[in-house]
Amino acid sequence: MLGAILILVGLLPLVPQPAVDPSEFQRWFEAASQGQLQIPTEVAREAAHFRYVFVAGFWNERMPAYFAQNAQELRTRGVPRDAIHFIYPSSHKSIEENADLVHARFLEIAEAGPEPLVVIAHSRGACDTLAFALENPEFVRTRIRALFLVQGPFGGTGVADYVAGDGPSLDPRIPLRYRAVANLLGRFEKIKLKRGKHGGLSGMTQQASEDFWEQMLEKHLCAIPVVGPKTFYVTSETTPEQQRLFKRATAWYLQTLSGPNDGVVALEDQSLPALGTVLAVLDAGHSDLTNRGPATRAPRQLRRALIQGVVMAVGSPGERARIDEHASRVSAPGNHLLQGQRTH
Predict the structure, then answer these.
(1) Does 338 map to a domain?
(2) Whole domain around residue 245: which residue ranges?
(3) Over 80: is that where the pLDDT of 236 sits?
(4) How many CA atoms lie within 13 A of 308 on its CB side?
(5) How many domains does the chain contain in total?
(6) Average pLDDT over residues 323-332
(7) Following DSSP, what letter does each residue of 173-208 receive, concatenated?
(8) In a domain, 343, yes or no
(9) In what helix (H) or strand (E) does residue 236 lie, and over which residues does it extend?
(10) What's the pLDDT score for residue 331?
(11) Buried b (16+ CB within 10 A) or exposed e, 308-342
């Protein structure tokens, strides 16, 4: 059914083209990660006119510095502190159970000022964000400039399957010490689940994720032409050796069974086909772009590079012109398919 829906989406008329060019974003990020990106003054000035929203992912309750360096980079680029906001969906609830909280926070943030919103959502928070967008296309059409969805488990993750007992057992090809660590992690999470904690993990299995997004896309089909052009995926993959101990174990597990991954989510599961644009496949672990140590071994420059790429994307005159053109097409009279009526 999901494949049929995506084919139908591809046939919908008047769907705007992507406003951010992937090759440009990749170039911006690579230059920024080497400290060589020069952001023009007018681009930084334009980007500072937006309101920014960070949406955190699974286990955010254990990561007090989530997005701290990303937000600092925005302030360095001239974005006022009160124009930077955070949403922390509960790790103990599913996407459906978090929907009211996420919806209320977006409305609260929008009421803080008339500026368009630039959303940067990571991991499971990217899924919470996209679900909100599909359910509220009128809000997306009128208030959201762009959605940057970073390393989201849209296809679920084999790690959740393993913890739930539905995934393959630990493969002998995985080095013994990492099999031991993965087994320990699995036991820890199962204990948490029995105690009513980390309830959102069950919704991140591959089958549960496929079922969820199939239903969402079918139910909110008319929202896709509004949401799709403003949706941009930032995906990544790296080697197990680049990860911290625990993620090194899960990276080995995923690499053996699913192929390239960022230590938590397989590369192929970090986007939804035919909905939005994949901007880049970066060399980064799952925490490298959004969290500082001890969650990651990656330098701060990677967190800065992500934000600098976003600033260039939303602040460049060429990108703004393309986004404005798309917005006018979306809101054109008589274009009933693209009108952002809220769905229920």
Answers:
(1) no
(2) 19-322
(3) yes
(4) 23
(5) 1
(6) 50
(7) TS-HHHHHHHHHHHHHHHHHHHTT--GGGGGGSHHH
(8) no
(9) strand 231-237
(10) 44
(11) bbbbbbbbbeebbebbeebbebbeeeeeeebbbee
